[in-house]
Amino acid sequence: GHLHDFVAVTPAFHQGHLVGLFASTCHFMDVGGIGFGPDGRDVFEEGFYVPPLAMITAGEIDQTLITLARSNSRYPAELEGDLMSLAACNQIGVSRLADMLDEFHLTDLTALCDQIVRRSR
């Protein structure tokens, strides 16, 4: 991707164990830079570079990260909304995975993965 593509990754825990990761990607409308087209001659003219960082830790949003991102966009409210939508999307996936594991009395995805491999041979 490029600077406008943000990826949020959320760990999925079930019964205290990591069972997977959910990821969602969104192309953000504006992350600063020279403009909205492909006019940048180098990465610094394309926009604000955000290295991999934790946006939410133990349920708490990192307001410093949100403030930095908002400060480097012409559309700060929309950018913050997009960030929150990525987190919400992943959280729905985590919740639905936990519901499925409970419904089928599974502790992780191993049995399901094994079944998929068996059926695909």
Structure keywords:
121 residues; alpha+beta; two-stranded antiparallel sheet; 4 helices; 42% helix; elongated
Question: CA-to-CA gap between the ends?
Answer: 34 Å
Output the helix-strand order: EEHEEHHH
Report the portion of residues in β strands.
15-25%
Number of helices: 4
> How would you state the average pLDDT, rounded?
92
Total beta strand runs: 4
Spatial strand arrangement across the major sheet: 1-2
Secondary structure class reads alpha+beta
As a whole number of angstroms, the C-alpha radius of gyration is 18 Å
Largest sheet, in brief, is: 2 strands, antiparallel
How many domain units? 1
The backbone outline, from C-alpha atoms, is elongated
Low-confidence stretches: none
Assign a percent range to the helix content: 40-55%
